[in-house]
Amino acid sequence: MKPPVRSLLGTDQLSVPEIEAILKLARRMDPKRPPQLLRGKRVVLLFYEASTRTRTSFEFAAKALGATTTLITSTQSSIEKGESLIDTGWTVTSLGADAIVMRHPCSGAPYLLSRFIPVPIVNAGDGLHQHPSQALLDALTITNHKKRLKGLRVVIVGDIFHSRVARSNAILLSKCGAEVIFCGPPDLAPDVAESIASGVQVCHDLDFALLGADVVMSLRIQKERLAGKQISLDDYIARFQVTPQRMKLARPDAIVMHPGPIVRGLELANEVADGPQSCVHEQVANGVKTRMAILATVLKAAQ
Ligand code: NCD
Question: Which three-class secondary structure state does DSSP give residue 274?
Fold first, then answer.
């Protein structure tokens, strides 16, 4: 038996039973009547990059379980004065942090910190690399609707190249037996899917990819990271926007997901984003329960 997970850095480190255990715990979490599993614990939210959903849901999750939280961002802290990542990690550990939830623009930053700091680190998104809590909350959302992951056809469409959400989801979903198809123009969906998780396919034709899809996961076009890419947004909209017409190609009971933030009118037509198949708000709500389960697990507080 593997030692219990201490830090949560990526979905690649999780076994199927560990994924199932976190999802089971998340289903039991009631944010309105939360068990006080983290009473007296201190959770530091160390955010070097912008966030709305992830940061707020980790904060609500920690507080709901009885922990105290503090937010450190790269402005208005000693990071602005040039303090190194590892020195900042040691500072918050010496101040009494029991866990650090961390987002960083550089891939690998939480992995580096976890090698130096003796408290659990939860990766809340590192560069283009991993976003494990998002993949877990997405798995919770999918299983709430489909009761399983095995055998589902999941189309992930958008800016795959820059997406830590795509990578974490592809690894988790294929490990759990889902069929994962990456879709987008070649610049945003390069033919390297197999190296992310075995069995993941790439398709540059959304109409074809959507045939028989159970789940359509749309991703944001990360305009801040598009430098050097030959992308015409008008062409993207024409070929890859998820529209009501295109959704007719998927299964009638298919669900539509997006990790947010949505760029309105680009990745998703408004009728789809706000339509009956959209699970976008449910994903956000599931973020709190899932992050409660994650914090309880890394802090070994779950019964
Ligand atoms: C994503 C992220 O930051 O990786 N958002 C999120 O956490 N819900 C996706 C994105 O920024 O497009």
Answer: coil
